[in-house]
Amino acid sequence: MSPNRLRGLARVVLPVLGTVLTFLAVWLAVSYLLLTPDRRTILVPPPQDVLTQSVLRWSHLQPMLAALLLDVQVSMAGLAIASVLGILAAIVMSQASWLERGLYPFAILLQVVPILAIVPLIGLWFNYGLGGRVVVCVIIATFPMIANTLFGIHSVERGAHDLFTLHRASRWQRLVKLQLPAALPTIFAGLRISAGLSVVGALVGDFFFVQGQPGLGTLLSVYLSRVQSTDLFAAILLSTLYGIAVFTLFTVLSVLAVGRWYRPRARG
Description:
Low-confidence stretches: none
Mean pLDDT: 86
Oligomer: single chain
Number of strands: 0
Structural class: mainly alpha
Number of helices: 11
Largest sheet: none
Shape: globular
Helix content: over 70%
Strand content: under 5%
Order of helices and strands: HHHHHHHHHHH
């Protein structure tokens, strides 16, 4: 491997490694320096206990992995629906200012509505199982797609619009060949945000909709009620790693899709 590649790899790996080591050091310091042994096992078990008592025991890890698989299905289904609905809604609103003024407040409503307040309604309409969990993900993850797509469509330079007008392009041609390609960077930015929110939505849905197979959110509630601290921390770490993996995946997809021709402006 060439020296340049080694330096590039070091720039990527070393900050991540440093963050992980700092996190573990703080975790150990809190566990051993701030807590007595009796409180330590309940409040903040040290990382080696979480590893040996939960992660490395298949009887403890297997339910978590099954719950994680369910949350993956729920969050990805919710993200797919939210992405389609968000992009379509933004396209519709971009076609006329009166449509945007009329529909955008409802998009904001999706962002600010308290999920807990409408849980009974969601359960009544979509049942308290898998369907309700997906709906929670959709509600939480739709607004970033709408906002970012609409911003990208409106951010096309005036000169590009004038060029399409000069060539007598139709509304459809202007949308497909100019506005949507120009909006791709912001669409993928919204997708990264919505991907993380869909993971949160899946966990929140697990807390409220407990019928059927349990998700990680359900297990978190069970572990908390039983004071199974090592299992609780293992489930939290597993859900955190899943969220990081999802965000990283869509960041890579964004670079592959638009990274070759789009570069953000350098900061002054």
